[in-house]
Amino acid sequence: MAQHYQTAIIGAGMAGLTAALYAARSGLSVLVIENKMAGGQIVTSPEVENYPGIVQISGFDLTEVLRKQAETFGAVLASGEAEELDLAATPKTFRLGGEAYTADTVILANGAEHRKLGCPGEGELTGRGVSYCATCDGAFFRGKEVCIVGGGNTALDDALYLARICQKVYLVHRREEFRASAVTVDRVLKNERISFIPNSQVKEIRGEGKVSSALLVNRDGKETELSVEAVFIAVGLKPENEVFAPQILLEDGYIKAGEDCLTNLPGVFAAGDTRTKLLRQLVTAAADGAVAAVQAETYLREQKG
Predict the structure, then answer these.
(1) d(Cα 182, Cα 201) in Å, to the nearest integer?
(2) Within 10 Å of residue 190's Cβ, how many Cβ atoms?
(3) CB neighbours (10 Å) of residue 38?
(4) Within 10 Å of residue 58's Cβ, how many Cβ atoms?
(5) Which of 26, 30, 95, 235 is 20 to 30 A from 222, alpha carbon to alpha carbon?
(6) Average pLDDT, stretch 263-292?
(7) Which helix (H) or strand (E) holds 102?
(8) Is the pLDDT of residue 221 over 90?
(9) Percentage above 90 pLDDT, the chain
């Protein structure tokens, strides 16, 4: 016989764990499924300073506190990957570790992965000067020289933000022209603290224990080494939502859901970085998790009549 839960949550990042906390605290039976490490992207961050009410904490410790809080109210965390998902069924069905499960509601909180450069030093120095979130980690490099990689709106907005707090910002882009809005491009080019380095890519990120430089190579093969203390990578996010299609409507790879976290399927909700949204931060992921859990509870109550 299939194991049954009132709410199954796919993903144990900030959105998923917050959803688990709210759903379990409201009395629902909750299963949280994570195929990697609980905490998502933030778990590897050594310092978190932008979560309201917490001056400073590591991503791992923040995750542990939230996980234990959710489990205190009865949420069950399981390691593995939900397979053979039928989100249109009533109840929803899936398999986990070869076992059959059903759930009255499902919250998709599987997040999105930052696109990587794939160069030497990137993985080794992540959290030690390599960052994928300027607004999260920029303050650690106040008054320092840094570089940011990318050419879209996010990269340019990040460059403008960093220019307010850093001594020098090198903006490295593999093309000659930006993909950002004209207004943002104009602001970047007029900012004296930002130096634009076009037609170039980061070949290697160097440093012993922390970032000390970035080795660039241009189209002609010429190499240049920048002495910087941080490399911010803003080349996009990659949501892994293909597994939910064609059951769930996607938009540019993200699950189509608004601030109410409703998807196109009754009883299925999307929370956090996986859904279409303006801002992807810890605080917005947590907010989504709370909203999705309340929506799931409301849906179950309405189904009972």
Answers:
(1) 23
(2) 8
(3) 20
(4) 16
(5) 235
(6) 95
(7) strand 99-108
(8) yes
(9) 76
